[in-house]
Write a structure and sequence with these properties.
heterodimer; A: 230 residues; Cytochrome Bc1 Complex, Chain D, domain 2; 2 domains; two-stranded antiparallel ribbon; B: 122 residues; mainly alpha; globular
Amino acid sequence: MRKFSISLCVLLGSTIFLPADAQPDPLASCAQCHALTLNEIPEDKITHRMERKAPDLHYAGRKFNQDWLVHWLQEPVRIRPGGVFFGRHVETGTDGQDVIASDSLLEHPSFNEKEARDIAAALMSKSEVDAGLVPEGAYAGKGNVRFGKMAFVKLRGCIACHENEPGKGGVSGPELYTSSQRLRPDFIAAMIARPQEIEPRSWMPHLEMSDRDVQNLTSYLMSLDPGEEQ
Amino acid sequence: MNCTGLFAATLLIGLGYSAVAMAEPVSMDRAEKLYDTYCAQCHGMSRNGKGINTVGLSVQPRDHTDTKAMSDLPDDQIRLVIEEGGLAVNKSILMPAWGEAMSAEEITAMVSYLRKVCKCGN
């Protein structure tokens, strides 16, 4: 009887002292694969990039559109055709040509609508990057789409690493045919202009572009509609 | 050598040592890792110019195992291409500039690593 009373007290006590509005951390499962704070990223960023399981999310709030996150988390599709680091998924054919071993790529888990909304809301609070690097208004909204496409496909070589439509373009970088839905336009412009400052040791090279080129490229990417042939 | 000369020589040696000590030496292992990170996506895990991004590229990347072709490239030109990209040597824009992704010491190590890959050390 005494043992039962103690157990009941402990149980009641734990209930009483647990804050009524306590909620589990919606990002708890994300933290298993993603770095959610700058502190989690080691000094050796090259090794980190090669070995991490998933992209860093410490500045997700400055990068992603919340509506896209809510939708994508419920029905995730692959963004990086070659995986988070292509080097872990390459196999070389008999002709010496490297290809991505698709069966080695990991799938992202899916969530129900409430979970997706909670995770997306929590991610939007992640902004651990110098605000000056992704300023509001980085994209002025009036670049030339045609010139932007020319820069992407020919003049600046973006297509070597990124797809601008499914199956067309490089596979080591994230596909960009859904970037208008996925990414904030200010982030796109800032990442084109100063990639190594936003993500030190990124695979995205710094191409010394004029602001006009940056605006044109951003306008082109914002014009891409994954439902339409470009 | 008088006292002044001895002092000057000591100072120069000291300064020279400091300059060397300040620059982090980059090992061949590290250069290989950098190659796998930045270069292999186009130049291939086998260093043969057949990386995952090359299907459909208008200009094919250089085969770094091609001893003869690589022998024709001076170190300075290789360094310039890595740092400033293909356009700096009138080659393709598809070779990007990695000067902000890699330090000067890492690029120097990369040049040495490429000489090892092509078996064409200067």
